[in-house]
Amino acid sequence: MGTCRQGPLTDIRILDLTRVLSGPYTAMMLADLGAEVIKLEQPKIGDDSRHFGPFSNEESAYFMSVNRNKKSITLNLKSPEGKELFKTLAGQVDVILENFRPGTMEKLGLDYKTISQINPKIIYASISGFGQTGPYSRRAAYDGIVQAMGGIMGITGEKGGKPVKIGSSIGDIIAGMFCATGILAAYIHLKKTGEGQYIDVAMLDSQVAILENAISRYTVTGKVPGPTGNTHTSIFPFETFPTKTEDIMIAAGNDVLWCKLCDALGCPELAEDERFCSNPKRGFNHDEMFALLCLRLAEKPAEEWAAILDKAGVPCSLINTIDKVLENEQIQSRDMIVEVDHPIVGKNVIAGIPIKMSLTPGSIYKAAPSLGADNSNVYQELAGLSVRQLDDLKKSGII
Amino acid sequence: MGTCRQGPLTDIRILDLTRVLSGPYTAMMLADLGAEVIKLEQPKIGDDSRHFGPFSNEESAYFMSVNRNKKSITLNLKSPEGKELFKTLAGQVDVILENFRPGTMEKLGLDYKTISQINPKIIYASISGFGQTGPYSRRAAYDGIVQAMGGIMGITGEKGGKPVKIGSSIGDIIAGMFCATGILAAYIHLKKTGEGQYIDVAMLDSQVAILENAISRYTVTGKVPGPTGNTHTSIFPFETFPTKTEDIMIAAGNDVLWCKLCDALGCPELAEDERFCSNPKRGFNHDEMFALLCLRLAEKPAEEWAAILDKAGVPCSLINTIDKVLENEQIQSRDMIVEVDHPIVGKNVIAGIPIKMSLTPGSIYKAAPSLGADNSNVYQELAGLSVRQLDDLKKSGII
């Protein structure tokens, strides 16, 4: 755990109105790299995800996992005083980030058009299910909906089986990641020209952007791609195999690796076998190849084979459950599992920062904030409010 | 299709040595937003993915889908003249991007340490399977390996069933996306201080960073998360249902939507039913709820239900196959499916740009380049080579 806000983005101040996952993920990425993120939440209730289980000492583990390194303030955006205070804050930040349903910020009178008149340099980024434009723009979306509509489910699942949803909410996360890139690109333009702008990222668009070769496979061949199970569409062998114990993933991406694999499995005769001597041949005779490899792999437990193949330089992996991920020596050595001290919860385990920078590394220096934890210092510093004024706002439920 | 390179990043020049997917995805994201990307490929062979099928007029559809908006030059980095030429180019660019196995650039004498002595302002970004450090750093990785090792497979699949690989190569793509954010963050620091730096992004780290609540669910409850099928772990109903035809995804994220769903399905009595009146109760009595909803949903085809639920404001979607994704009116209206004119192939269909910026929008203005298409102009402009020198380099196989 780090000790202070640090990284390449320490000059950037973000007012973050987002809830649950997509926007909070964006803000987390930027906060990890040093941005000052002021998370603005509804008084008393806060981000919906504060109420998602499981809980640790009544704090949501979900909320804690995606809101480290942030400040929290409360503000009722429906009250006239709340709106005024929001506008004051908007004049003091570089970025506003929101993920309400399109139209909500307009209804509140706090949309980009209004705010950019107060602060023309503002970068105002919105994440929504379907985007700010188009026939579906006003519909609500959830992760599962965009995974289904955007095509990724249709290509995930057992071969010939039913479509399967990805086990983490990548409908939200991918959109959050694109938005982070968009904000930094806009900031580069801002620093060059002094101009702010509006950024519109849709969860559905973002799903389409990660379909990889599925689009080209379809448009070139006319065949509609379906679930492909745990195989690769054009590299053989590149799939999961049963062993004496659990399955193992093996990827022999070229002829050299194929020979190494055959040697390591103790069946060098397969490396010489004409049926399997090139990748196209291994694809053509896939089922025979698979069956022969299975025969050998059935003889030892997966862990033993993994050690043998690692030593032989053949890419492979057990299919880790989360407990194994947390124990993995490589993942640990890369600081990708971090223990954070939370004032209420104590030790809290979250994922680390995947962007490793040599000169300006980011840091995880602070657990997720309790609701409104930073009201005093933020409102005093950025809006010049007195302790008395803060008390009054609190009493009237505005903060 | 746009007409010229435009966007917030037009001042950034990137020398891109990456192959296949992770790095090419990073470079594509930045090129889409205006960066000048010079893709450096091995003479005669080029990026491995140029040889991945399916092909359209002998051009790889795979390669075309991820290399739009880029220039291509060829250079043999193993020859002394190639190394010298590389160093000349390195002095003329802002970013070097590579995704060789760790150690390769050192072996070539073209690692960060060497290049930063020539150009201290350089941002040098590496994407690798396991990262530049740690016990696995020198191992080769493929998408399937990091999906298995990083935990996402272990939480994806039918409930109680076997782990399933995600149908697109998110092991590569997620790493590419983090790297794009890292490069822009480093560029912001560069513009402020004049300092370059090294960025190390690992595919495995990147997988850990998108596990979402799986880590906290495990560390708080001690239960190892497994595949959850097409359901949500804490919202009910939020899953796929069979209909008279194909399955439909329905997400009723709160009590209001639950009532709307019951009304729209013509079973308002369920909205009144005590067993289902709150989300926790719907979770507790999930199987009964599911069975009752299935009874109604079995009466009409999925498309008909989708229209009814859309009208009622209940989030839902058919599980689109890729052909349906391409036809979707929302996706089309957002320019997320783009036809590009390729000089050899003609019309080529690829995914659009998911980051929509109001003032400095990116553009897709150019199909993927043929191998070495930009040798003349790049080497003349950035290395001052004459036509004669270029001819000689070509004859000797250096470019």
Automatic annotation (TrEMBL), chains A, B:
The answer to whether the entry has keyword Membrane is: no
Ranges annotated as spanning the membrane: none
Q: Name one GO molecular function term.
A: CoA-transferase activity
Name the source's superkingdom: Bacteria
Keywords attached to this Swiss-Prot or TrEMBL record, sorted alphabetically, are:
Transferase
Keyword check for Thylakoid, yes or no.
no
Which Pfam family is an annotated match for this chain, by its short name? Answer: CoA_transf_3
Q: Report the protein name in the record.
A: CoA transferase
What is the organism of origin for this protein?
Hominibacterium faecale
What broad taxonomic lineage does this protein's source fall under? Bacteria, Bacillati, Bacillota, Clostridia, Peptostreptococcales
